[in-house]
Every structure is written in structure tokens, then in C-alpha cells.
């Protein structure tokens, strides 16, 4: 009997906690986004497991089968679409597979890979989170009756955002690695957008545009690195 079956045997959803009995594996490299998911799961009654890369996620999935998997498309060791494609054809299949990203094309990529749905970042609505999970569950797994939900936005820990910036600063130290530069550009664009840090988000978007056009990136990269260091030097990051 797997982790999900054991939970479902003892827990039943309620009007205020409609995801009670579900285990959700969140595959996400951003600590800020992970904290948002933790709060969403806490308010909804779901149990959360976390993995920060494809390798870690696959290790989790060798041990247990969660009720749902939420996969960020941009991960340090590859695209989350790879994992979504694997999960979509695995038997027995995970009940719910969702992609998540701050990129405008993220939903198209996730659904093409086989995801059941998509969560656009920033993910801060309890109602939207619950609806995405519940709508993809098999009919026999969906709770009956009305739901009572407060849709006040969740507020992740600002210290988690600082951790993300410290991670980005480490990666930016190796600016000659093209693969890691592509990763940190996408990473900063997503976490800055989720944190409402518009200045850093715009700088990361400008860097992504310059890389896509093949134009020199040195000045834009220096701007991004400077903004990251400014925030790390400040007492409060956001």
C-alpha cells in the first residue's frame, strides 16, 4: 500500500480542507515558490513533499506515488517538461500532473508534455490551487458537497526569497557557463515575478531578450548581478 493510499484510508476531505488525504509532490527549485506551495497545501489540508530538481523528484517517485505532482518547468538539471512526459505514461499514473511557470508559453509546453493542468506563477490563490487539483482528480476521488474557502492571498516568507537570491548570486559567479546562464536568467525572472520584485524581473527579462537576439549581454548581466547584490545587502529583500 503506497503513501497516498494509506493517507486516503484514514483521512477524508472536509468543506474547509478539501485536499485532506492527498499527498502533493512539488518539484520546484525556488524556496520562495516552495513556501507558497507549502502555505497553499496547509490551508487545503494536503500533505506536501518537495524536490528541488529532476534527480531528486525521480528519487522520490521511486519510493512512493503521490496523489498529485506540481512540476516547475525550469529546473537546474533540465526541463520539468521531461518529468511531466515521463509521469504522463507511467503505470499506474499519478492522479494529477500540473505544470507551473512564470513564462507566457509555460502552459502550452506543460499541456503538450501531458500535464492535466497548469498553474501560472505567482501561485497565491488558494481557490485557484484547489480548483486545479480537484478538477483533475478522478470523479470517485473528488469530495462531495460545498467548499468553504478564504481566498486571501498567501504570503510566503521573505527570507525564502533571500535564499533564492543567494542561490542566484552563486550561479552568476560562473557567467561563462551558457547553460547555467540560461538557467539563472529563467530562475530570476520567475522568482522576482512571484515576489513582486518588478525591477529585478524587468532586468532578468531584458537579459533573456538580449540572449535570444544574440546581442552582447555584459551590461545587462552586470545590471542583474548588481540588483541581486543590492537585495542581499539590504536587511529586507522585498
TrEMBL record:
- What InterPro entries does the record tag this protein with? Bact_response_regulator, CheY-like_superfamily, Sig_transdc_resp-reg_receiver
Keywords associated with the record:
Phosphoprotein
> SUPFAM superfamilies attached here?
CheY-like
Origin superkingdom: Bacteria
Residue positions where 4-aspartylphosphate is found in the record: 72
Residues covered by the Response regulatory domain: 23-136
Cited PROSITE patterns: RESPONSE_REGULATORY (PS50110)
Asked if Phosphoprotein is a keyword of the record, the answer is yes
Q: What is this protein called?
A: Response regulator
